[in-house]
Amino acid sequence: MSHKPLKLIIIAGSKGRVTVKYPYQEPLITPEFRGEIEIDPAKCIGCGACVKACPPNALELLESEKEVILRYFVGRCIFCWRCIDVCPVNAIKGTRNFELATDKHTDLYTLVVHTRTTCEICGKPFETTRMQRYIAEKSPVTEEYASICPDCRKRLLAEAVSARRVGISEHKE
Amino acid sequence: MLNLEETTKYIELASKSGGQAKIEGDTVFITIPPDRLVDVADTIFNKYNTSFRVCAGVDERPLNGHFSLVHLFTDDKAGLYVAVKTYLSGESPVAPSITSVVPAADWCEMEARDLLGIEFTGRETYRLVLPPWWPSNLYPLRKETPYNYRPEPRLESEKLGYSREYGVIPLGPYHPALHEPEYFELYVEGERVVDVKYRGFHVHRGVEKLAESRMSYQQVNFLAERICGICGFVHSTCYALAVEKAAKLDVPERAQFIRSIVLEVERIHSHLLLLGVAFHLLGYDAGFMHIWRIRERVMQLAELLTGSRKTYGINLVGGVRRDVNEEKKQKTLEALRELGREFKNFIEVAISVPQVKKRLTGSGVLPREEAVKLSVEGPVARASGVNKDARRDLPYAAYKYVSFKVPVYTEGDNLARVLVRVDEVFESISIIEQLLDKLPGGSILLTDFEIPEGRVGVQVVEAPRGGDIHYVVTGKGAPYRWRVRAPTYANIPALRVMLRDQPLADAPITIASIDPCFSCTDRVVVVRDGRIEEIKLTQLVK
Amino acid sequence: MEQLLVYTLTPLIVLYAIIPVILDGVERKLKAALQSRIGPPVTQTIYDLLKLVLVKEIKTQPTILYVYLSLTSSIVTGLASLYYITLYALRGDQVDMFYALALFAITTSTHTVTPLIVPNPYSFIGGIREVVLGVVNEAALITSISLYTIMAQRSVLKSTQWVTIIAVALVALTAFIASYVASSRVPFDIAEAEPEVASGIFVEFSGSVLALNIYSLLLRRLIVKLLVLAPTVGLLYGFSLTGLLVVLLLLPATWVTYATVAVILGRSRVDVAPLTLAKIYIALILISITVLLVQAYA
Lengths: 173, 542, 298
Ligand code: SF4
Ligand code: SF4
Prior knowledge:
heterotrimer; B: alpha+beta; 2 domains; three-stranded antiparallel β-sheet; 42% helix; 17% strand; C: 10 helices; binds iron/sulfur cluster
């Protein structure tokens, strides 16, 4: 038997106590830490880019006739901050908050409610009002399509193409 | 290291066996008719001395009306991947089993049977992955099965078997001291273990199906990282590399360096974690506490580099999401110096504790022949004299730019497995230092790229527990097929050899010595026929 | 006067009942310090026991009544044993020591067989392991302390013959080892050993039964230390009231020393520990007896 195991006492002595009295003391997190996200309702345009990127479906778009709701459920969030990467208007901010326990289920949800526009042609509910404004600002050229829903746009396009194809085949004959 | 001259023998083998071969990068793709499969597998595994990694079934009926089965080998000396593919009938897929020549293929064949309904001839099969109550003609990985379909579960006893000759000690599936749901049945005679049965796959989460059905390429990175809480970054790197290989993407060097750095941080973390647990199991709790005190530093280092203490979440197909600046580099180097010093100081003390030394030495021996036969991975293999390490043999990410030793021990006992990990901690520290020193400039993420459909990528990443393998067939916006095999999948079968004829008291430390990760292993599969069967123990021992 | 002494000793028993719980708190604090942790407050063991007693009882198995009985008798005989050790420390009458030893044997055996009453395989495995170790160790503990007592009685140290001194030293060593082992600390806490296979004897105990079990273990830890301290002090210092005070002062120091040893070591393997111990004990005791006999006839 060697005396080496006794060195433990020296090591313990020189290291002191490394545990902390959390939660009575600041948690040991660094500035790099990724925690809960915060969506700025004033900035969000309801485009859904974050919803598409979010791996665990913590962000969802709930659509009704009048509204589009962006719902953040922190219970599913994996704090990857992919939503922050993709948001076109920087509406999402990362925080260092990780103490999320609550006894109220509703505390786990954050909602951002958007009003919707309707399609100029078919009248079906369509993108959010803010989104329409945003697109108009970014690329004024698309203005004439901006208020037409994708279905109608597709139909218009199909009609235009078939009209042209008919024209070509006539020419061949 | 990659040696393309070695590919000739595979091409010849393919043409001799009535098939074809094609070389893409470091992978030889061989397609042969099913009736030649056993011969070809025999030659590749036993004659060419390759490692068998896994087999994967693919439902290709929507593409070409067939099922296919791919056996994945790696020729570690030549740095080559060898994928042997056979097409099977689309109506009733039957393949010959290769377990007679490659015993390590035991589980993956049964997994293909459970999940895709591929039958195997020339072997006995039982339900490995799916629970006993699962409908017998419902195959989750067939494309027509919706990912969110849930058959009504029925409660049924899953007792494995029993013995009148020996005492039976059930261990798990829910046991206060086991950290994950797994079930061992130990058969004992007095204090000696005569045999062991294992039943896992309780936490099969169907991640492969999920990725194939409802996620996008970039989302899968995060899912892959959640296969395992300890070696998650290995999985996301392995997935990203496999997709990048399939799509032939030119990922920025800087990203590859950062991946390697984080992989090594993860390895140090994993090894320290295991050492702590091992000391705890040996009743040396001071060792547990002090090793975990040192481990805390690694977690802070990980947070500095990635933003998370664990499950880092910085991998994407095409690169990484967090850069290393000068300040972080200096902080990392400083943390590593301190870490190395403290670890060295303490591990000497811990290993010198008489009970620790005595109980690790000579217990849970895995002889070299068994290690080769079962194609075990990582520290388990290296402690039994099998010199393999994918970082050196099949270099990926930035490992070709650094030099490091691969520790190999020949004793094959628990002590050897512990010492391999101790040595590796020091190697990892040196690898990170070298990588930081050589860190090239440039971007860290490829942004504009396309992933063509129908390409195949195979990648092995050396996880702390051994080689992890991902097999990806690309599809539209998401993988068409994604097969994951974690190292513990290959190591569990070796436990039977290690536990047999050992004192019961040594069973926990021996099980821990492979550093098992059951959730990784289970990720895709389900288990044994619910019938209570009485199998002769001698038969089990085989 | 002697009779009076006996009566005034009774309050001391109350003190004995509390000491082990507090010293266990100290042990946990020390363990934490050696593991670089803050650790729980010194009073934690008291809180733990109180919590267990106040918790709602869940009857997990049918033999609970017998478990209560055996644990209670273990505690009562334990306190009685402490009473006789104190008398011995005061008066140096070896008969007191033999009473104490006999009572301690009952304490240990009732405590040790308790897990065997419980119909649970883990409890049974843990219990059997304890019994095997107990049989070996208890024999050595009782033999060596009896020898030790006899030697202390004869005031052997007054003779300057080196053979005698060696014999006494060997017996004392055996007694200390046996007392350490009997305190069920690492590396000999094998009843709780291998937590992953057999959760040991505690697996079916909860609430007040668990509290009783823990308490009776702590009480045993106190007794085994006093069993060796009393003859040691008697031998070196003498039996008297101050002698008793010295014993009580040395108690925390011994407790802390035992605790430190436990932190530094790992757990021995269950089947190896009794065998190794048996060999050591037999050697030590045989040598010292031979020495004594040689000296007696010479
Ligand atoms: S942080 Fe990640 S998981 Fe959370 S909401 Fe954003 S994208 Fe989703
Ligand atoms: S990406 Fe940004 S703007 Fe679009 S929905 Fe999400 S938070 Fe709102």
